[in-house]
Write a structure and sequence with these properties.
homodimer, 209 residues, alpha/beta, Rossmann fold, two-stranded antiparallel sheet, 7 helices
């Protein structure tokens, strides 16, 4: 089973590493990290580099494709080479998936037309610009397309996918392996639960970034 | 604020990237990834490399030290260069923290003697070999030492720490930014909640790995 992650400059690290930590544990998984070129790819703030072992032009297929997000997707939505690669690999996949604004790339590639999909809550309405149907659920499945909400939701998406691929019992064992028994110290992880002051504080943080 | 992550061959990626995604968002954070040598460091199964921009001998201090885990800690517990570096940096920190079996390294360095600490549930009893007091909570604070349970618990630890450093309101905004409103499809993320079949399935998976 080939699990392929797209990397790009400006990626949000946890978007990729959340589902990676789940999917790498699937039976017979082979995971590949793919970018425009082989080499280190800097994440959003530049503090970290993830290493791409493969270049796009060397990877033509995948059983599972995972497209992470990050601020940089805003530019990549218009990058024809990336969109063409996504369309080509998608013709070979059993599952085409995204985390956070990764779904904006799938949408821009024309893969989500008429389909329900999700993304980071702050960008949700933009999915309709590409003909997708915004759905504010944490993990949205429409056929082989599975999109997840912001950043950390990729862990939930990964477990959902692991259950589809290897069965509930296997997915549960993975969950125990990564001790995913979340106990956030606050309950402000969604825009419906956060109080207005928190939303305002985040908007200030995002504008500064 | 210098936030320093230790990297090593065989690290579990999410142990580092979970708290990283939270702590990199702190005001004026500068995050450094440090390993024995500068360059790519392969994670447990070899599928991914994280890039260390700094070598241990170039980093003598940190405000926040984060020590991730992975199978490889079992050997590193006996690596005097790593343990000495941890002891030296610890004398400069405001917070010394770990995720998963990263706490075994802090314990082996003698930093947790007489202190409550946690680690991956499967290794918890081993903490007492180094004089630490095993505590089966998800995030354990004892003074400036904050240890987290297995793999994904580093996100909860990161938010707990963010609240101590920048206040609850700031931590809540980070939580909303990474949309950390966990909705795991199963409830088998801790050994107390998982059914015996799941525990057995995981033990088989670990033995194969």
């Amino acid at each position: 089973m080939d699990v392929t992650f797209l990397l790009f400059e400006g990626i949000t690290a946890l978007d990729a590493i959340g589902p990676y930590e789940v999917l790498q544990r699937l039976p017979d998984a082979r995971v590949r990290f793919v970018a425009r070129e082989v080499g280190p790819v800097r994440t959003d703030n530049g503090f970290l580099a993830l290493h791409a072992d493969h270049a796009m032009h060397d990877v033509a297929r995948a059983d599972v494709l995972v497209v992470p997000g990050g601020f940089a997707t805003r530019q990549l939505e218009h990058d024809q080479a990336t969109l063409e690669w996504l369309r080509a690999v998608d013709t070979t996949t059993t599952w085409t998936t995204s985390v956070c604004t990764g779904s904006m790339l799938l949408a821009a590639a024309g893969l989500l037309v008429g389909r329900e999909a999700t993304t980071h809550w702050s960008q949700l309405s933009r999915l309709s610009e590409y003909g997708a149907v915004p759905a504010s659920r944490r993990v949205v499945e429409t056929g082989k397309y599975v999109t997840a909400a912001g950043v950390s939701s990729g862990i939930d998406m990964g477990l959902t996918l692991a259950a589809r691929i290897a069965g509930d019992e296997y997915a549960k064992a993975i969950q125990l392996g990564i001790e995913y028994d979340p106990q956030p110290p606050f309950d402000s992880g969604s825009v419906d639960k956060a109080d207005p002051g928190t939303v305002e504080a985040l908007i200030t943080m995002l504008q500064r970034a």
